[in-house]
From TrEMBL:
InterPro entries: DHH_sf, DHHA1_dom, NrnB_C, Nucleotide_metab_enz. It comes from Metabacillus sediminilitoris. GO terms for molecular function: nucleic acid binding. The lineage of its organism: Bacteria, Bacillati, Bacillota, Bacilli, Bacillales. Pfam families: DHHA1, NrnB_C. It comes from the Bacteria. Residues 253-303 form the DHHA1 domain. This is Oligoribonuclease. Residues 326-394 form the Oligoribonuclease NrnB C-terminal domain.
Amino acid sequence: MEYLLLTHNDLDGVSCGIIAKYVFKDKVDVFYHSVNSLDYHVEEFLNENSEKRLDQHLYITDLSVNKENEANLEKYVLAGGKIQLIDHHKTALHLNQYTWGYVEVEESKGKLASATSLFYNYLVENNMIKRTPALDEYVEQVRQYDTWEWEKNNNNDAKRLNDLLYMQSIEEFEESMLERITKNNHFSFNDFEEKLLKIEEKRTDRYIRRKRRELVQVTIKHLCIGIVHAESYHSELGNALGKEYPHLDCIAILNMGNKKISFRTIHDNIDVSELAGKFGGGGHAKAAGCSLTKEAYKEFVEKSFAIKPLKEDARHNQYNNKERCAHYENKEDEQFLLYKDRKDNWVIEKNHVLMGEAFPTFETAEQFLKRSFSAGLSKDEKLISYLLHGYENMK
């Protein structure tokens, strides 16, 4: 083979493989890797390559290499080897020091890059591929999903594209997408896929509702983190839990089967790639991950094991609805009343005893309450009971 592509096994990485096969046809071999398995293949490639194979062009996309492979790839290039690494994670920016490294976090100001969009632009700029509407649309869907712009833009089709990948094998997805971008003028889902995706969306909703009741809250590395064990729907679950519990800085999703942790956040001021980096991982500002190392196990599994799940906010209240005052409780049966005092500040009572701190807004008061006491909005009858009890004590 004239070309070899080593890429990630998620939507962004797989889409790099699809574009490579679109361009190079049967002249390329594509291998899909996890973050941990790439370096083994790179080592194997470098060990097997002799001078007679220097004509083979190696592409690495959506993944970066370790220090040892970094040095050996540079030696290989200096000896005449052809390598191009294309990535968009800021943890790989140091690879731009090499002629074979092309790492960009943004395509342009305010527009985040994906590996697929960078690879596509690279091929276009080097006259190896011509733009088409179908390719442009497909690449943009992948970019928006991988950078989470799909949510800001309310582009549900980008999320559904990722759903479709995980509903079938990579080979099936590859074949289907290749045929579509080759034969169609525009990118879209077919009728059968639309039906499958609707079924999958219902299944995802049920899964999230179940996992919502298992979320626990801990403080790790000065962050207030929600921890849940889950094997599926990590992106959807992290996003839903982040919205449900905005007082949490991020969500950590533990998969004990493959010993991985996925981090998700909905907050612009939180960079979960920095948190993942403290445990040997990396990723994006809003989506990152790491392996479940001994240190990570101690922090995320041992520390949270004995903690009770978070108290969910009551959903169908008529009176206790976060307006004039709101009643909360936690799994330790502690009760809290949040209300505005005569000085127009928001204050909190704990078990009918006024706490010392005052807050300028309801949101800051509620955030303090939830982060400090893992409390959830109680049902109407609990508010009424609390107020009546306080009234009786005043007589």
